[in-house]
Amino acid sequence: MTNATLKNYRYDAVGPSGRVQGFMAAENEDDLDQSLAKEGITLVSAKTVRVVRKRESQRMGSDDLVIFTTQLATVLGAGVPIVEGMRDLGKRMRRHESRSVIEDVVRELESGASLSDAMASRPRSFPLIYRSSVQAGEMSGSMPEVLQRLASHMEWTRSIRQATSQALIYPGILGLAICGLVVTLVTFLVPRIVKMFPGGKDELPWQTRQVLDVSDFLTGNWVAIVGGIVAFAVGLFLFSRQPKGRLWLSTRLLQLPRIGEVMRMFATAKFASTAGTLQNAGCSVADVIGISGRSCGNARMAASFERANEEVQRGASISEALGSDERMDPLLLQMVAVGEQAGDLGGCFDKLSDHYDRELPRIVKWMLSLLEPAMIVVGGIVVAYTLLAAFLPLLDIYDKL
Fold first, then answer.
1. What is the spatial distance between Cα 196 and Cα 193, in angstroms, rounded to a whole number?
2. Tens digit of pLDDT for each residue in 64-83?
3. CA pair distance 11, 23, nearest whole angstrom
4. CA 4 → CA 16, 29, 126, distances in Å?
5. Residues 228-234: contacts with CB within 8 Å, 24+ apart?
6. Secondary structure class of 94 (helix, strand, coil)
7. Please, what sign has the CA dihedral across residues 297, 302, 308, 314?
8. Which of left, alpha, beta for 285 (phi over 0: left; psi -120 to 50: alpha)?
9. pTM recorded for the entire structure
10. Which residues are 46's β-sheet partners?
11. Average pLDDT for residues 52-66, to the nearest whole number?
């Protein structure tokens, strides 16, 4: 938000599961409408409650949110009143922003708002799945269990993301090192070695002429090349921020061999984990499919889950609705069908999530174990060819001598 103050709205809206009420901070009603639309909710009416300070737009860090959720579940499970427990937890948060967010939620609770309504006014700190689970926990009276499951879900999501990021560090550094070495050889070493050759460029071996052409192109157009790379990166970033752009990119990535399969598994794993959390929290089927689909992390798969959710609301079973899309994982369809027949859909989602929790790290590790040698082999071939092109003229001179 760019303004110094925000307005706190109490809104009435329509979501996938019907009427939705809550609080949210926004600059104006248009900003409120856009924020709700991102969550698949259509604004009906809004009323200003009070003007809030800029700090209410601050965000609680993901690490702090996991710690806060786990500790709140323990406190509520021990029978401590929620206001007292949250006030004490807020004082122990490490980051000032997290403390401020919790203090504001406590003030909302003291003024009579429910916990889910107080959190709804801070969507940057408490995502949609979090607020929906809390609301279901309030309705079912099982808040400690819901919060504990939420904490486990967030910890699982964070561990998968961190494991993937750490696994990509070495290949990324290796790729940059190889590219840097090749550029250095082509633009610096090869031209200086070739200068030692007394003949003209036409008398050089064809391999050397090729490398020199590449060198001339890089050194003569490096500003345009760097600018083009930056422009492409910025354009791709802006394109990916648009709904149609995200959908197009997600579709193309899912079509890639092996990589698309892994991305589909990641999306399905996140869907299953979120669905299990919401189902066991007592959320409606529409919320389970709708929220889980939007949280899967892939725009193409999210659109498929949204279509399935619409079919479910028209009376189809979940397995039938999901099975109408060929992109769906067969294991997901099988587990959902079993869960519907046994009346334990949440348990089947949990089992599916546990399966992916074991399977995904193994597959990612296997792919990276192939990626690193492939990068070394390709980089070695390019470097060897460049060095060969550099030393061929010297070998010609030696032969003539």
1. 6
2. 888 888 888 888 888 888 88
3. 6
4. 33, 17, 22
5. none
6. coil
7. positive
8. alpha
9. 0.64
10. 11
11. 66
DSSP annotation of 55 = G
Give mean pLDDT, residues 120-146: 77
d(CA 4, CA 25): 13
C-alpha angle 146/121/45, rounded to 5°?
A: 115
Contact 29, 9 (CB under 8 A): yes
Residue 1 has which token pair?
A: 């938000």
Distances from the Cα of 278 to the Cαs of 136, 285, 310, in angstroms? 8, 9, 18
Compute CA 355 distance to the chain's CA centroid, rounded to the nearest angstrom.
20
**CA-wise closest residue to 390 among 144, 193, 172:** 193
Measured at the CA of 298, the angle between CA 341 and CA 265, to 5 degrees, comes to 55
Which tokens belong to 116? Answer: 């889910």
Considering the chain, what percentage of its residues have pLDDT values greater than 90? 1
CA 201 to chain centre: 52
**Closest Cα to residue 161, out of 43, 273, 40?**
273
CB atoms within 10 A of CB 86: 23
Closest CA to 190 of 50, 395, 391: 391
Strand, coil or helix: 42: strand
